[in-house]
Amino acid sequence: MDSGSEGSEGSECLFCGIVRGDVPAEVVHESDRTVAFRDVNPQAPTHVLIIPRRHEPDVAALAVAAPDDVAAIGAAVADIVTGEGLDDGYRVVFNTGASANQTVFHCHAHVLGGRRFDWPPG
Ligand code: AMP
Predict the structure, then answer these.
(1) Which sequence positions are flagged as catalytic?
(2) Domain residue spans of the chain
(3) How much is the pTM?
(4) pLDDT in tens, the chain (122 residues)
């Protein structure tokens, strides 16, 4: 199974590797439950990914398995908005499933800011 495949975890999962410190990342925020780092392919002037340390494939699975981790992601959003100066507006996205273009199957929130965003999204 490759590093981004659905159901992968532990040594097979790219984002578990970032949690462990085995995979380099520009970490901007950490808590006991989450790690946040800059996306390698940013889609906005600010593009940060927040991940739970726990491996779950998506936010719905995380909510069932560890609801406090979902709350911790929300708290991390608030800290990143303050730290990155996004008070004018920002977007939080959980791409979930293949048809929504999820490519890494370790739950992650995209925090995007620093430009205007259209609605509906593409
Ligand atoms: P998604 O398509 O919603 O699953 O988002 C996965 C995101 O992870 C993409 O925006 C990628 O650019 C990003 N990404 C992949 N590998 C890394 C990495 N090593 N460090 C930081 N971001 C990454």
Answers:
(1) 108
(2) 10-113
(3) 0.94
(4) 333 334 466 679 999 999 999 999 999 999 999 999 999 999 999 999 999 999 999 999 999 999 999 999 999 999 999 999 999 999 999 999 999 999 999 999 999 999 999 999 98
- Provide the sign of the torsion angle of the four alpha carbons 96, 101, 105, 109, taken in this order: negative
- Pocket lining: 95 vs ligand 1, CB cutoff 6 Å: yes
Residue 96 CB less than 6 A away from ligand 1: no
Nearest atom in ligand 1 to 24's CA: 19
> Is the CB of 25 inside a 6 Å radius of any atom of ligand 1?
yes
113 - beta bridge partners?
Answer: 46, 90
For residue 19, give Cα distances in angstroms to 1, 22, 26, 51, 90: 19, 8, 12, 8, 25
What CATH architecture does domain 10-113 belong to? 2-Layer Sandwich (3.30)
